[in-house]
Structure formats: structure tokens, C-alpha cells
Specification:
The complex is a heterodimer of chains A (256) and B (271). With 256 residues, chain A is an alpha/beta fold. Chain A contains eight helices and nine strands. The longest helix of chain A is centred in the C-terminal third of the chain and has 17 residues. Chain B has ten helices and no strands. With 271 residues, chain B is mainly alpha-helical. Classes of the chains: A alpha/beta (256), B mainly alpha (271). At the A-B interface, strand 5, helix 3 and helix 5 of A face helix 7 and helix 8 of B.
Chain lengths: 256, 271
């Protein structure tokens, strides 16, 4: 069930990537990621699963171009996301763990943010933002400031913001972990539908096995310091029995 | 997928009017008490100590309606605003440099702290010794006395910006200009307005000292004239010109705050 993706086909390619915080070799140095190799094919929904502090977010930040690897190579669409940071404008969107809405902007202005960076004309970006807000059930709340919205609504605004730029690559860092299970479940289902419908490549960080199984068509389990301990792919043909086997295997890996 | 948010009860028109009247009354009350106490004192003390506020009022009208005297007020206002603007621009640039480079921060911080310890009157003396032009002297004094405070306040605001929000905006790969417009400027605006409010009061005090010693016009110069004439009503009237100016600018800054920060949630429980 292991997915074989060659580096040339990969939308995201990590080659012997390590990240050390602090001065390498010094007593205070901390190795967050250790020699990871990972290829994600276009259109794949990869769930990265691991316990808190296993380096998931560091990998996420390196793919996003927000952190530079200490050694190894990260490539997204064949380019270095850290060195060629600006070239990814409009090509990559992120949904963070917390909604990270700008408090001085209304819901619709927050959704327009990415489009503003792309110099999209006001009328067009307003129409796009309106479309995504409506699609995510926030019609009528366009002019509300974040403080007037509930946690679930705010997270939906942040999802709308990510989809509005029509970026090919979506990076999600535990976006539903701060929500109650019922809201998280609804948003998760909506999110999967939108990703599939729009043919995005998505990397989804989570610490929940159920969430990983629900969202991903591939799951990578990390052990501290971030090393791949288990890598499994599945699709709609994977039956419930096989899924339960995957779940119990992941449980064993995490417990080991 | 829509979720209903609880709506607060809308206050009636009568409640609004009553609330406004109460707020107005509360803000006028302290001034009314001071005015009454002064007027009461004027009944028992000689005119050169506690003149009647009616005299002061007519002196104020005289200043407003006499071109040459009002020009003195405007000169002082211009000096305050020019000094504050200069200090804000220089302080803002220094703060940006300090936030970008730890070495610059380590170099400039002690110097600015040193400047903060120098009394305004010392800067007046230095300016008189160093420079010839009256306007430049006053501009220099205003900038040097408010620069450290502006720099530290802008620096603090830049450092206090949310790292999470910054990362989120960075994830959209903004240009420097757009980063400044969508993130930095709105994030530091509250602290900038506070810095202006604080420095406005300081500047209005310093400008009087600067004009008192080194100018041939302006409110400070006129105050010196009143002192030499032992004219308390005149001294009070000229002082009130500065007070009016500070109150007007504070009012404008508050108006900007109320408009720019309407996004803020208001808690029903106060500190």
C-alpha cells in the first residue's frame, strides 16, 4: 500500500532534509527533523501524523518556505520555497491551527487578503471572496469583524481565505484541532470535498488518527525527531476492514 | 453551516440620549469645579494673584481677534506640530532599523536612554549655544526631547506585533509595501496614536520653555511678557491657548481612534 512517487513527478519533494534549531553540534542544539525523504504527487492529500513535538510543524514550515532546512533539499513544484519565496505568490495557501484573521479587517476583507497580494482588481476579488464565503455558509457575515464571529465561523473564513487564491498547493496545520468535534467534523467533510472538487495537492498536519484517515489518501507517521516511521496510501476502494488494519498499525507505530 | 450569534439588546433612543448627557456631564464636571474654585478665590485675593475668569475670558477673545497675537499662537502650534512630526519620522525610522538589526538596537538604545535623562532646559541651553536660527533652535529642542519616547514607543509596537499574524501574511508572499499596508501599519497604529497623545502634552510644555528663553514670538515669549508685567489674567489667557490646542488635537486623535479601532470587541466588564 506504499505510494511510489518519483521526484520528477512530485508536487512536493523532500530529499534528506534535516532541521537543527540552535548552533549545530552545540549543547543547546535541537534536532527537530532528521534526514527525511518524502515525495507528494500532484492532487494527493497527504496527512502527516505524529505526537506533539515530533517535528510536524517544522516540516510544514519548511514546505511553506517559512523555515530553511539545515541540510537537504526541499522543492515545491520544482523550486525552493525558501530561496524562491516570492515566486510562490498565489501558488501556495495555508490554513493554520488558529484562524489568524486580521482583527482590523472584516470577514470579506480577510478573505480578499491573498488576492490583494496578487493585485486582483477590487471588484473581482470582492466577487471571489463573496463566492467562497457563501460556499462556506457565511453569507450575511461578510462585514462582520472577527470578534463578532464564533470560533467555527472564523476558521471557515480562514479556509475561504486559503481557497480564494486558487492556489494549487494547500498546507493545513491542524486547522480543526481548536474546534468542538461536531463543528470540526462538518468542516473536515466540507474541506475534503472542496480539495477534491478543485484538484488541489494538500498536506494536512494532524495528531488525530481518525482525522488522518478521514482526510488523507496517504498517511505518513512521524516519530521524534521527525523521521518517517510509517507511510501508507489508500483510496476509496480501501474497505473498512483494511482501514481498521491501518488504524491499528498506526496506533502500534505511535505507541512504540 | 450557519451559526447564530447571540445579539445584544439594542438600547432605545431615550437610553442613548441619557447616556450621552451623563457622559457629557461627567466630562464637564471636573472643569466646572476648577472654574468655580478659581472664581471663588478671585473674590478674596488681589487681581494680580487670582484675576476673575471673566477678565481671562475677554483676554482670550482679544488674543483670538487680534491678528498679531493670534499669529503668536499659530507660531507655537506650528512649532509643536513640526517638532513632533520630525521626532516621529526620525524615531519611526530608528525603530525600524533597531527592530531589523540587533547591533543597531544595542548601539542606539543606550544613546536614546541617555537623551531621555537630559532635561528639556539643558537642550534649550545647548541649542542656544550651538545654533543661531530661532526656528531651528526650537525645532531641535522639540525633536531631541520627544525623539527617545517616539522611538521606544514605535519600537515596542513593532516588537509586540503578533508573530502568528505576521507569518500568516508572509505566507501570501507580500511585497514590502503591501506587508506594511496590510499588517504593520494597522498593527502599530494604536501605539502610534498613544505616542502622539503622550508626546503632545510633553511638547506643549517644552515649547513654552524653548520660546521663553530663545524666541521673539510665540506663546512662551508672550508668557514672559506677562510675567514681567505681573499680569496674571494675561498669563492665564496665553496658557489657555496651549491648553485649547492640546484639547483640540487630543479630540482629533480620539476621533481617529474611535473610527480606526471600531473593530475592537468591547467587554461589558471593565478593568
Amino acid at each position: 500500500m506504499r505510494d511510489i512517487v518519483t521526484p520528477n513527478d512530485a508536487a512536493i519533494h523532500l530529499d534528506h532534509v534535516s532541521k537543527v534549531f540552535g548552533k549545530p553540534g552545540s549543547s543547546g542544539a535541537y534536532r527537530a527533523v532528521d534526514n527525511i525523504n518524502l515525495d507528494v504527487r500532484p492532487g494527493q492529500m497527504l496527512a502527516i501524523l505524529g505526537k506533539t513535538g515530533c517535528g510536524k510543524s517544522t516540516i510544514f514550515n519548511m514546505i511553506a518556505g517559512l523555515t530553511e532546512p539545515t541540510t537537504g533539499t526541499v522543492r515545491v513544484d520544482g523550486r525552493d520555497p525558501f530561496a524562491d519565496f516570492d515566486s510562490f505568490r498565489g501558488k501556495m495557501a495555508i490554513v493554520f491551527q488558529s484562524d489568524r484573521l486580521l482583527p482590523w479587517r472584516t470577514a470579506i476583507q480577510n478573505v480578499e487578503l491573498g488576492l490583494e497580494m496578487l493585485d486582483t482588481p477590487l471588484a473581482e476579488r470582492r466577487a471571489v471572496a463573496q463566492h467562497w464565503l457563501t460556499k462556506l455558509g457565511l453569507g450575511g457575515h461578510e462585514n462582520d469583524y472577527p470578534h463578532a464571529l464564533s470560533g467555527g465561523m472564523r476558521q471557515r473564513v480562514s479556509i475561504a481565505r486559503a481557497f480564494a487564491t486558487n492556489a494549487n498547493i494547500l498546507l493545513c496545520d491542524e486547522p480543526f484541532s481548536a474546534l468542538d468535534e461536531s463543528t470540526a467534523g462538518r468542516l473536515r467533510a466540507e474541506f475534503v470535498r472542496l480539495v477534491k472538487e478543485n484538484g488541489k495537492t494538500a498536506v494536512f498536519i494532524t495528531h488525530s488518527i481518525s482525522e488522518a484517515l478521514e482526510i488523507g489518501d496517504r498517511i505518513v507517521v512521524l516519530k521524534r525527531p521527525a523521521m518517517i516511521a510509517y507511510d501508507v496510501s489508500f483510496d476509496t476502494a480501501t474497505d473498512q476492514q483494511q482501514r481498521e488494519l491501518i488504524r491499528s498499525r498506526i496506533g502500534e507505530v505511535l505507541a512504540a | 453551516m450557519s451559526e447564530a450569534m447571540p445579539q445584544a439588546a439594542t438600547p432605545s433612543l431615550a437610553d442613548n440620549v441619557l447616556g450621552m448627557a451623563k457622559r457629557l456631564g461627567m466630562s464637564v464636571l471636573p472643569f466646572a469645579v476648577v472654574i468655580l474654585l478659581w472664581q471663588f478665590a478671585s473674590l478674596f485675593f488681589p487681581r494680580f494673584l487670582f484675576p476673575s475668569l471673566i477678565d481671562v475670558f475677554w483676554r482670550c477673545i482679544d488674543i483670538f481677534s487680534t491678528g498679531s497675537m493670534f499669529a503668536d499662537v499659530l507660531a507655537t502650534v506650528f512649532r509643536i506640530l513640526a517638532g513632533l512630526a520630525g521626532a516621529f519620522i526620525i524615531g519611526g525610522l530608528l525603530a525600524l532599523l533597531m527592530v531589523r538589526s540587533r547591533a543597531i538596537d544595542r548601539f542606539l538604545s543606550p544613546i536614546l536612554s541617555l537623551f531621555q535623562g537630559i532635561p528639556a532646559l539643558s537642550w534649550v541651553v545647548f541649542a542656544i549655544i550651538w545654533f543661531h536660527g530661532v526656528e531651528f533652535r526650537i525645532f531641535f529642542i522639540m525633536v531631541m526631547t520627544t525623539l527617545p519616547s517616539f522611538t521606544f514607543q514605535v519600537l515596542g509596537a513593532l516588537r509586540a506585533m503578533s508573530r502568528d499574524l505576521m507569518e500568516m501574511v508572509f505566507s501570501f508572499r507580500p511585497t514590502r509595501m503591501k506587508l506594511f499596508r496590510v499588517m504593520i501599519a494597522p498593527a502599530i497604529l494604536p501605539d502610534i496614536l498613544t505616542a502622539w497623545k503622550v508626546n503632545l502634552g510633553n511638547a506643549s510644555r517644552v515649547v513654552v520653555v524653548a520660546e521663553l528663553v530663545g524666541a521673539t514670538g510665540g506663546v512662551g515669549y508672550e508668557l514672559l511678557q506677562q510675567q514681567q508685567l505681573f499680569d496674571m489674567a494675561g498669563a492665564l489667557a496665553w496658557t489657555l491657548q496651549l491648553v485649547f490646542f492640546v484639547l483640540i488635537v487630543q479630540g482629533i486623535l480620539t476621533l481617529i481612534e474611535n473610527t480606526a479601532f471600531r473593530y475592537r470587541a468591547v467587554s461589558e466588564r471593565v478593568i
